[in-house]
Amino acid sequence: MYSIKMVTTYLYTRYERFWHWLQMALIFLLLITGFEIHGVYTLMGFEEAVEVHNFVGIAWLIAFAFFVFWIFTTGEWKQYVPTTKKLFEVIHYYGIGIFKGEPHPVPKRKGAKHNPLQRLTYLSLATMLLPIQMVTGIFYWTYNSWEAWGLGFISLKIVALIHLAGAFSILTFIVVHVYMTTTGHSIFAHIKAMITGWEEIEEGEEVEDWEKPSLRECPETVSAEKG
Amino acid sequence: MRLKSKHKRYALSCLWICLLFFTSAPSFANQEQDAPGLELARQVVKEAKNTTTADHSRFKALNQDFTSGPEITKACLSCHTEAADQLKKTLHWTWLDPNSPKDNQRGKAGYSINNFCISANAMNDHHCNECHIGWNEKGKETEIDCLKCHGQKKINWEEVFQDYKILTESKDPEENVLAKDAQAEIHEAAQSIGRPTRKNCGSCHFSGGGGDGVKHGDLDPSLINPNRKLNVHMGYDGQDFECSRCHTTVAHHVAGRIYGTPASETRHSLLEHDLEPKIMCESCHSDKPHELSSKMNDHTDKVACQACHVPVIAKVLPVQRWWDWSRAGKKKDGKPYDVNGPFGKPVYQSTKGDTKWEKNVIPNYLWFNGSIKGFTAKDMIDPSKVVKLAWPEGNRNEKNARIFPFNIHSGKQPYDTVNKTMTTPLLSGEHGYWTTFDWQDSIQRGAKYLNLPFSGKIDFVETAYVFPSTHMVAPREEALKCNQCHTRPDSRLADLAGFYMPGRDKVKLIDIAGWAIVLSSFVGIVLHALGRIFANGRKKEE
Fold first, then answer.
1. Element housing B177 (H / E)
2. Nearest 5 degrees, angle CA B154-CA B160-CA B161?
């Protein structure tokens, strides 16, 4: 047993939190309607499901463009730069260490909200899986124009199956992602942080150079002790 | 305090963004106001009025005594000078498909075969000629009967002319007076002239195959006076269309499919070409009939309007679905007999064999480019398979092909086992099968009329014959819903292969693998969580 003083730090900015929960809602809707369209169950009916799915998909695309703008203008993209440093320590922690009560090898700190495993996961999501869903989704949506665009050779079946495989991948991600939120210092600590922006983290941990994002002149990132 | 004001701003900005997204929401709710095709069609059919400029009862030519049908026709032609020439070039008169080879010409007067009364034997099976628009049963050698299509008062002409003849020739003056009544009846009918009504067209087209609703499934006498639930265009409580409202006519040529020749290959709307026939749905509704944002508009390149809007046929009267000639000829006490079944329709007749009838038939869906491949008595068959006597042409790669609903009529009928051709038995008349019950003789006679060989050896083969289901367009609310096709396993399009259809199709491997991964990740986190609980390894900050 050991004890470290906890400090409350502002980890997630307002826009970031808004984006997270908006994206959650949109993806949630997309999964529900998408699997209905695939014929897994009947909820709102095929027609309604298609309309909602198309609308939400486009909404997500627009919102994602804002996110991309935000991530580059704020320099937050550096939080997504992948690294193998301590990657295996993190994997070891979630695989074994967590059961023994060992400390997290890369805890959240101000300015370094992602551990190496998260960096890799979120980077893959943002640059691979989500774009694949968007591209296949747009193709699916514009099916009737393929011929006019000279893309008549594309097979709807392939597009649909990639889109479906992507959906399974996202669903799998969500299962694990939601579970991982319970591995904070309390069950709901991570979720609370994503709602309020504030998370209790261990005091004194320094952000190592490789983890540092660009310096942001944002007064709200200044840590403040609660109370 | 700082947090509180921040929350307020946060909530406000959330609200603003939600508003931004959802006030511009698409047409989840609105249905029709933005449907250009619907609006277009409504404009086209505004205020139908009787536009005739002639009262036929005031024509001198029609105010004379008529002793025979052809005399009436002569009177008609004295004004309508070109009508006969025009009409005699049309299919309605020739019963021959002008676009088929002369040595194997399709048509009822040609070599065409169906699985009803099989063949008209070059118009020598006089029973078939009841529907020919001439004045007697002698096929094309007689005068046109204008009144079959234009007469608004149906009388038994043969009977009334015969009565008139007897009554005028009678020595009894009382009977001579009665002759005037007969002539008055003739006058009234001859002067009741108009454009063809549903009743005129229906007198043949609703009762083809020898009875009401034998053939089409979407054409039967229920359409003489339908409500809009039965036919949204023809309903007396709706648009009240006559057949000719869509089957527009130029010089007596009525728009419509002629065997292998599509009714239209252009699918233009009247806005594009105002003189095109109104025969296609697109003519009035355009190819974007639904509201602009609707996915339904995207379907019109591959799915015919009828596929969704004619969801069921034979809605009021039953349609015959099966006709097995091989069972014909049985007798009770040496006499032919009938057995009636459901709907008051025969299930057995000695003259015809077994028949099956159905109501509220769900059509079959096939690719259709507007052309139907007909079968003739000269075509060779493969008796090991169902012989498709009439079958739609087209496949999904053809630009003009659509998924289209069809009524498929099946049956069994005699074929020549040596020549491998369908036979053409003569049915009516004293030497017809219905009198003699002798296949050999009736087929021999029928073949002779068509100059066809007959080996004398017959057997029965199963045949199929399609009718496009295009009438009986249901009101919008009864049109097919998306999930009647986009579903499994009982999709209406379950049998159409070769393309991926969302909701209907899946690749089992991807589904199994996908769910397996999702499930195993779930099992993984449950085990992980249990591990954390039992290992009691979590450190809690006090």
1. helix B173-191
2. 120
Stretch 103-142 of chain A: residues touching chain B, C-beta under 8 Å: none
**In this complex, how many residue pairs, one in chain A and one in chain B, have their CB atoms less than 8 Å apart?**
117
* Chain A: residue whose CA lies nearest to B522: A175
**Contact at CB, A100 and B486, closer than 8 angstroms:** no
pLDDT at A117: 86
State pLDDT tens for residues B134-153.
987 677 778 899 999 999 99
In sequence order, what are the residues at sequence separation of 6 or more whose Cβ sits closer than 8 angstroms to the Cβ of residue B456? B418, B440, B444
| Single-letter amino acid, residue B301 | D
- Structural contact between residues B479 and B311, judged by C-beta atoms closer than 8 angstroms: yes
Q: Are the Cβ atoms of A98 and B532 closer than 8 angstroms?
A: yes
The per-residue pLDDT for range A153-197, each reduced to its tens digit, is 999 999 999 999 999 999 999 999 999 998 887 888 888 888 888
Distance between CA B338 and CA B354 in Å, rounded? 10
Give the integer Cα–Cα distance in Å for A226 and B56. 101
Test B14 with A168 for CB contact under 8 angstroms.
no
* CA B5 to centroid of chain Cα atoms: 70
CATH 1.20.950.20 corresponds to the domain A6-221: yes
When CB atoms are compared, the residue of B14, B511, B539 closest to A18 is: B14
Q: Model's pTM, two decimal places?
A: 0.87
Q: Compare B535 and B149 and report the one with higher pLDDT.
A: B149
Question: Using an 8 Å Cβ cutoff, are B83 and B251 in contact?
Answer: no
- The verdict on a CB contact (< 8 Å) between A39 and B488 is yes
What's the CA gap between B490 and B494, in Å, rounded? 7
Residues of A within 8 A of B517 (CB-CB) are: 168-169, 172
Q: Which of B501, B528, B533, B542 to mutate to test the interface with A (most CBs of A within 10 A)?
A: B528
* B342-367 pLDDT per residue, tens: 999 999 999 999 999 999 999 999 99
- Tell me whether residues A172 and B517 touch, CB distance under 8 A: yes
| Three-class SS of B68-130 | CHHHHHHHHHHHCCCHHHHHHCCHHHHCCCCCCCHHHCCCCCCCECCCCCCCCCCCCCCCHHH
DSSP state of A227: -
The per-residue pLDDT for B1 is 43
Q: For the segment B491-503, what is each residue's pLDDT rounded down to a tens digit? A: 999 999 999 999 9
Helices then strands, each counted (H, E), chain A:
8, 2
pLDDT score, position B29: 44
ipTM over 0.90: no
Q: Which of B510, B523, B530 to mutate to test the interface with A (most CBs of A within 10 A)?
A: B510
Cβ contact A48–B28 (<8 Å): yes
**Closest-CA residue of chain B to A145:** B298
Q: Which of B6, B499, B537 sits opposite A98 (nearest CB)?
A: B537
Q: In B, which residues are within 8 Å of A46 by CB distance? A: 481-483, 486-487, 503
Q: Of the candidates B506, B514, B541, which has its C-beta nearest A185's C-beta? A: B541
Work out the burial of residue B409: count CB atoms within 10 Å of its CB; fewer than 13 is exposed, 13-18 middle, 19 or more buried. buried
pLDDT tens profile B421-475: 999 999 999 999 999 999 999 999 999 999 999 999 999 999 999 999 999 999 9
Chain B residue whose CA is closest to A140: B502
